[in-house]
Specification:
This is HTH rpiR-type domain-containing protein. This protein is α/β, with parallel strands linked by helices. It is built from 13 helices and five strands.
Length: about 290
Amino acid sequence: MSQLGEQIRAQFSQLGPQERRVASFILDHMDDLATYNSVELSRCCGVSKSTVSRLFRRLGYDSFREMRDENRRLRQSGVPIPAALGDGPAGLIERQLKCEQDKIAQLLTLLGNGSLDGLIGGLAGARRVGIIGFRNSYPVALHLRQQLVQVRAGVQLLPQPGQTLAEELVDYGVDDLIILVAFHRRPALFPKLLASLRRSGVPLALMVETQAELPDAPDWLLELPLDSVSAFDSYSAAMCTVSLICNLLLHRQLAQGRERIGRINELYRQTEELELNRLWQFSSGG
């Protein structure tokens, strides 16, 4: 819960009827509270503007704007801020699908101007590719590694289990490439890691949320929308970007990629690791 929500719940029983009306509205609209101003808030709650001002002073804010800015910063930093389902589950699903469509359209604008060309060239020519993903970024990094390793050799997810990043990164240099997946709520070590990678000279691609404030600029910056209609971020644009990167690399070196995929599939057939072997048996009459 956000700091504002905690403060309201802690003081709710001590609020007057008009203040409670405003407080309840705020708790039900935490995800879109930043879109209101104090006049609109007072109108929606059917109270005076002075009631709104008095409530926020009681909660420790100098003004409604101060509270709104704090709430916006929390949401942009990835803090889950839920809202009441005023239009029910069906309405949430409809709004979420619309949000996903908007993100993909935004992604096409961001990446459709050749902005990935340099990164794809770097991936094609790098001796090794290291992929790092922290916390909620880890599934995206893992998926990126699983797709890239089918297209080219020398792709590692860092750090390996039980190891530290320093042990893994010490051998990476200018002939390699690092992809750092670091969406918001990054660990405290992120700025120092980013600075260290820049000093090392290793080519660096960085995947972050839009409007991320970065201390150092990477060689390739991919700012991706994570917007959602309620508490939790959506990673559809991030996963779509992973697919685009891997497909573009495959088609850049199609003969090499096809040969590698063929060798992988032959190993699958020999080791019977996947259920796909049943399909091969059926197709061969086995």
